[in-house]
Amino acid sequence: MKNKALINEIKSRRSIRKWKNKKVPKDLLKTIIDCGLSAPSAYGAQPWEIIVIEDKKIIEKLLSDRRQLKKPPYFINSAKYVDKLGKEKYEKVKPPPLMIVIAGDQKEYYGDTGGLIASLACCGENILLASHALGLGACWLFVRDDSMPDVEKEVKTILNIPSQHIVLGMLAVGYPDETALNKVLKSKKIHHNTW
Questions:
Q1: Alpha-carbon span 190 to 195, nearest angstrom
Q2: pLDDT value at position 34?
Q3: In whole angstroms, what is the distance from residue 60 CA to residue 66 CA?
Q4: Which of 1, 25, 84, 182 gets the most CB atoms within 10 Å of its CB?
Q5: Which fold has domain 15-174?
Q6: Domain ranges in the chain?
Q7: Looking at the DSSP assignment, which residues form a beta bridge with residue 27?
């Protein structure tokens, strides 16, 4: 198989939610961003705006509403969910050395919000896969959630993102300081020809 290594990278990628206190080198950062920029996009519009954040204080501000499980698997949740799940199980998030925020201008995207969101998601997935392939660990942290609009508003305020932009997510990136969870694939979700 020509691209077996690529297939293996895709199948072995897992979310990492705990990172070493080690900076991501500029050459690796450039590579993962270039992979994000190479993602497919609706209409070929390449609508993404990518914000790279290495400033620890800004990262801590972005994570101020998030809490992290004290024990593996270190899931990171918003304070709203932590209240429901039990605060005693959570602690302040140990920030990654790098955060990448993905946004896009919905006014310039032909009024197609769905296409914009799908395109931004493709960009994010490319960054996650490239990070994994380069020995980094990454995790997608939600921003846009219609049930919690204050989360997106807060991210826009912290980063001075214009109001007409959608902020789909934040990618936390760094050298892994945990063993990734095993994943069982849900093969029952596959249908052939009809439902």
A1: 9
A2: 98
A3: 10
A4: 25
A5: NADH Oxidase (3.40.109)
A6: 15-174
A7: none
